[in-house]
Structures are given as C-alpha cells and as structure tokens.
Amino acid sequence: GNTGHIVLLAGFVLLTVALTQVINGAAAVTVVAPIAIIAAQKVGMEPRSVAMAVALASSMAFMSPLGHAVNVMVMGTGGYTFRDYARVGIPLTILLVIFLLIILPLVMTLG
Where does the chain have alpha helices with state H? Predict the structure, then answer.
C-alpha cells in the first residue's frame, strides 16, 4: 500500500539529512536524488515528489556546523560548539522531517 511509499520517502529524507550534516546540501542532492528517482520509478511512486523531498531535506543542516558555510561563520563569532548545534539542531530536524513527511504527501501525489 501507500505505507511502503512513506517509508521509502522517509529513508531518502533521512539519508539526505544525514549527508547534509557533513557535506554541502547541493552535493547531498547530487548523490541522493538520482538514486531516489530511480527507486521511486521502480516502485511506482511519483519521482517528482521524491525529488522534492530530497531537495527540501538538503536544507536541513542544523545538527552540525559543517553542513553550511553560514553555520561555520556563526560558530566562530558566536562561540558555539558542536554540542550547541546538536542540542538545538536535533529536535528542530526531527520536527521538520515529521512535518515534511506529513505535508508533502498531501501537496504532491506519491503514486
């Protein structure tokens, strides 16, 4: 049923979020999007929906200062540590992933 599609979508979102914590978001999308699109086509999902989820997940670089250049700049001037990013970023990322997995299927058809 549609539950398998949500699980696959969640897997690609979580993979993209994890990669975005250590590399640039554009690089994470370049790695994950082609795999996600092919997998979506094979299981009968709408590839554009999965690509949109991967693109949105690539902007969730909150758990680490390495994911975005602005995070590094703020870390230096604000005196933040990796622990500070994790303390605020993990709950924020969890909230946004849940929000994405609820809203995206309502806005875009998964297949």
Answer: 2-20, 25-43, 47-57, 69-78, 82-107
Q: What is the tens place of the pLDDT at every residue in 65-86? A: 888 888 888 998 899 999 999 9
Specify burial of residue 64 (Cβ count, 10 A radius: 0-12, 13-18, 19+).
middle
Q: How far apart, in whole angstroms, are the C-alpha atoms of residue 71 and residue 7?
A: 30
Identity of the residue numbered 65: P
Structure tokens at 105: 């299927």
Residues 6+ apart with CB under 8 A from 60: 17, 20, 93, 96, 97
Separation of alpha carbons 15 and 54, rounded Å:
9
Contact between residue 85 and residue 72 where contact means Cβ atoms under 8 Å apart: no
Nearest to 88 by CA among 65, 63, 67, 70: 63
pTM comes to 0.88
CA–CA distance, 42 with 29 (Å, rounded to integer): 19
